[in-house]
Write a structure and sequence with these properties.
Elements: H1 4-33, H2 38-42, H3 53-72, H4 86-101, E1 115-118, E2 126-129, H5 130-155, H6 162-166
Antiparallel strand pairs: 1-2
Length: about 170
């Protein structure tokens, strides 16, 4: 039997990151077809105090990677936020997907009750059980950033729809 937290996280992250890859590919093609500087899309925001597209993708991948590894009880791999192009973002997503492929359901045994501490020792420290970490913290943040990335591109004229966002399942 597959571990419930594994089944509720890894396949979902894989599906949605696959959708994000597709949306980014359409954005890059849109920029080429419309003769738009790709950086105009990569730096686009929905509102001045929000992250631009590039950072939305970085944060979404950080949540997928961080949640998956914390639930598996293993150290979260570090990644530099050095992406500057659509190709860089695609490579980042591929790297996170490969990292998740390296996790297996057995590592998630006991994850529902495992204590997860974020930003340990800081004033923003939060403590969760694995179950509440996934459902009440990790997934909402992941979906916020993937949705915002999609919305930035849709707002800027990239022809994407719900099927693109959801990806293949």
């Amino acid at each position: 039997m597959t571990n419930a937290l594994y089944a509720s996280s890894i396949p979902l992250f894989q599906q949605m990151l696959g959708g994000l890859k597709g949306v980014l590919a359409k954005a890059e093609a849109h920029a080429v077809a419309k003769n738009i500087d790709p950086n105009a899309l990569l730096q686009a925001r929905l509102y001045p105090d929000m992250f631009p597209l590039l950072k939305q993708v970085q944060v979404a991948t950080d949540f997928a990677k961080g949640v998956a590894h914390r639930l598996a009880g293993v150290e979260v791999p570090k990644m530099e936020d050095a992406e500057l192009t659509f190709a860089d973002l695609q490579a980042r997503i591929d790297k996170v997907l490969a990292l998740m492929d390296g996790l297996d359901a057995a590592q998630f045994e006991g994850a529902a009750t495992r204590e997860i501490v974020t930003q340990a020792g800081t004033p923003k420290e939060k403590r969760f059980t694995g179950q509440s970490y996934l459902v009440n913290y990790g997934l909402p943040h992941f979906f916020f950033h993937t949705t915002t990335a999609y919305d930035i591109l849709r707002h800027n004229g990239v022809e994407v729809g719900k099927r693109d966002y959801i990806g293949t399942y």
